[in-house]
Amino acid sequence: MKRHLEYPECTIYELVEKTAEKYPGYCAINYFGKKISYQRFMAEIRKCAAALKAAGVKSGDSVSVCMPNTPEAVYLFYAVSMTGAVANMIHPMSAENEIVRFVKLTESRIIFAVDLISDKIERVMEQCEGLSAVKVSVSESMPLHIKAGYALTSKKKPPKSSIRDWNSFIGGGKGVTAEVHHSAPDDTAAILYSGGTTGRPKGIMLTNLNFNALALQSIEACGGLKAGMKMLSVMPVFHGFGLGVCIHTMMVLGGTAVLQPKFSAAEFHKLLFRYKPDIIAGVPAIYEAMIVNKSFDGKKLDFLRCIVSGGDSLAPSTKKKLNAMLAEHGCKVRVREGYGLTECVTGSCLMPDGYSDLNSVGLPYPDTFYKVMDKDGNELPYGEEGEIILRGPTVMKGYYKEPEETAATLRKHSDGYTWLHTGDIGCIGENGYVYFRQRLKRMIVSSGYNIYPQNLEEVISSHSEVVMCAVVGVPDKLRGEKVRACVVHTEGADEEKLRAELMTMLKKEVAAYALPREILFYDSLPKTLVGKIAYNELKNAG
Q1: CATH number of the structural domain 12-292+304-328
Q2: Are 370 and 388 in contact (CB under 8 A)?
Q3: pTM for this predicted structure
């Protein structure tokens, strides 16, 4: 029997406010050991909302948030909701031109950014008329002793900038009272960026209902979660997985989000033993690093109650190795893989606790329905592979100002329902379990970040000495995949000079995490029998 939940008709802020009323003394956020109770958490959100109001933010406005995982980023997410505005979530490592495009697209009048990129934000402001900015240090909410240490030991110092800081912004709201704006469930709460079916990043409109349904579904699908539990929240707030699961789901549960502005998979063990979380949710790169990390030797992992993997496929062999490693260290649970995409916030399907089909991504969430279709739009029987489509309360409102893309992805079927066409290949077993096979799109997933080859190919191809190029993801133990650019150049080109020029061009146009780790030169690119570029051959070369 299909599982059903009741979803509240309120905003993301109002749902978390209800949690805070139930558990005022519980810890909402743990930031480097500094614990922020739900009571204090709500007070900080209200102060932030008052400052937004004082800065002229109104219902329906867009507020750009270009920050890593800090308490201020979380306060902003809910304060923006409280004022009835929309949170425009941007990756801080985005290239200058990308930030300009996202700000202009949403007509944001204010942007909050980590202070380490203040120089980039100043250049963005020059190109976006009427844009004001607030810089925020990752040390803002750190305990005093850690804050002092961070200032002394931080390798990267924030550039000198005249942009006002967080305290100045918050001070502007003194004496101002922000009322709670009762937005509708279908009103957009946040815009996240993903490549959709064409690869060019588009703004995905996610509503109050999308986030609230995801939180309730995730709690139900995980099972056994209770208020007061801790999650190691390392997935970023500008990512559906980070914002939807690591933040909003935990805040609705009454749990603790252990925030980390920056982390490396190789150092993950230190966080595990320092905070001893009940729940970890991450990308395969984290779990692959755990398997080979000798720092776990002789240590217990019996504090873990729920382990979720998403963002990309976790190979069955890796799951097997990880589960064996967890059991060896006294952990009573096993890794549970899910599947989803930003167009439905994040996960919409998860392996139930205690089941061990290493090839499946589990069962759909409550009120979420999956089908598999062939290229002619016919529903396929159990076991046959085709495109995964789904519907449910977490499916996006659409792509912002992209009606054609929206119509291609959200399609109304003869059954009267609108289905999200994922562009992913998979099948459904007779038992209802979902099997994800591959992305139809040529998306590269590196350290949990989605990279769209088409973006890089456009930049590389614009060089006068480039005849042809293709960008592919190559398996990488630490990142999951790394970016490889394969280039055919004009006769007589100086390869070292061209490589340097291409990297300079790319650094201006794409985010740092998306830059190629290698640029290989070819006389010609391999082709398939039908004349298309043989991407798999390029992946396997070298």
Answers
A1: 3.40.50.12780
A2: yes
A3: 0.86
The 10 Å Cβ neighbour count of residue 444 is 24
Calpha distance 88→61 (Å, rounded):
10
Domain with CATH 3.40.50.12780 in the chain: 12-292+304-328
Q: H helices of 450-542, where?
A: 453-461, 495-509, 535-540
Q: What is the rounded distance in angstroms from the CA atom of residue 276 to the CA atom of residue 480?
A: 25
Query: What are the structure tokens assigned to 102, written together?
Result: 């996202």
Using CB atoms within 10 Å of the CB of residue 344, give its burial: 0 to 12 exposed, 13 to 18 middle, 19+ buried.
buried
Q: Write the pLDDT tens digit of every residue in 177-198.
A: 999 999 999 999 999 998 654 5
* Residue 517 near residue 503, CB atoms below 8 Å: no
Greatest Cα pair distance, the chain, in angstroms, is: 71
Which CATH number is 444-540 given?
A: 3.30.300.30
Put the strands of the sheet holding 34-37 in their side by side order.
34-37, 27-31, 256-259, 230-233, 279-282, 306-309, 335-340, 347-350, 363-364
pLDDT per position as a tens digit, 418-463: 999 998 889 999 999 999 876 666 778 888 887 878 788 889 988 9
Tens digits of residue pLDDT in 223-279: 999 999 999 999 999 999 999 999 999 999 999 999 999 888 778 999 999 999 999
